[in-house]
Amino acid sequence: MQIKSAEFVVSNSDVSKCPKDYLPEYAFIGRSNVGKSSLINMLTNRRNLAKTSGKPGKTQLINHFIINKNWYLVDLPGYGYAKVSKSAKKTFQKFITAYFSERKQLVSAFVLVDIRHEPQNIDLEFMQWLGENMIPFSIIFTKADKLKPKAIESHIIAYKNVLLETWEELPNYFITSSSKGVGKDDLLRFIDETNKN
Ligand code: GTP
Ligand code: MG
């Protein structure tokens, strides 16, 4: 699939104000700074469509970007160690939960995890919650440029082993690097295959 156009549509903290056209959407979630916004820019070939920063806590709202005028990529705030106040974190958590519970047009969530890190409880718990709520998701291992291929392989094996302690079947997963363009074709193919529009 080719991305011919990508445009920002709306940002908000209220799910009821998200677009009502019922076009399919794919949402990026994960710890602050894991690379959600960078991945949206990589997929769309745009430098600054989604705002990125070296400082965790950059994305603070639900951001809808319309792709090829008929489906959405959705950038969300991170969970975890964002350098924002406790009350802001609580607000994020509330609307992130509302977003995933209410957006029936969500085709799939992408849960991003940094390929360099050991499995973190916060991510495993979030995946568990998605599973319990029957929300389809794939895992995206980010920042693959930071590890050598052998280390990537061993980190993925270790991650799979932890997942298999609670999941009977492993979720779909992708390996990406936004700085090197790795994983773009695989992700776009997955979107193409799952998107009915
Ligand atoms: P929040 O909006 O704060 O939740 O963060 P985010 O998950 O949207 O992360 P963002 O895309 O803003 O990226 C965070 C930092 O990681 C930035 O300094 C990016 O340049 C860097 N980064 C993102 N993706 C990659 C990658 O694939 N490789 C490398 N080396 N750095 C990356
Ligand atoms: Mg962001």
Automatic annotation (TrEMBL):
Pfam families: MMR_HSR1. Gene3D superfamilies: P-loop containing nucleotide triphosphate hydrolases. It comes from the Bacteria. InterPro entries: G_ENGB_dom, GTP-bd, GTP-bd_ribosome_bio_YsxC, P-loop_NTPase. Keywords: Cell cycle, Cell division, GTP-binding, Magnesium, Metal-binding, Nucleotide-binding, Septation. Its cofactor is Mg(2+). Residues 22-197 form the EngB-type G domain. Necessary for normal cell division and for the maintenance of normal septation. Belongs to the TRAFAC class TrmE-Era-EngA-EngB-Septin-like GTPase superfamily. EngB GTPase family. NCBIfam families: GTPase_YsxC (TIGR03598). This is Probable GTP-binding protein EngB. The gene is yihA.
